[in-house]
Amino acid sequence: MFISQACFEGDKIIEHKIITKLQKTMKETIDVEGLLSTDCWLKENKDRVEYVFVAKWKSKDHFKKWVSREEHVEEHKEMNKQKKQGSQEEVKINKTLRQYELVDLSSL
Question: What pTM, to 2 d.p., does this model score?
Fold first, then answer.
């Protein structure tokens, strides 16, 4: 089993942008081969929000296949191109990615 975790953190004033991104990601995970479950977690304080999207996969290979799909890769290429050209609005969202593989502690 494999867990992918994407954390998006920013000021509350841009929370709607984070939510829009997460809603898009949730739609993209519907009926994906190898995906076992998804959750979205929220942590907030006075001025900041943190949303964590957690996806549980049958295997790392299933995750790699999903994340390397053409439309996802092209979306990131376009975002990077716009950022370099200065045509994309700079939004301060901190993104942290973490990945974990299931370990059977009794076999260690």
Answer: 0.82
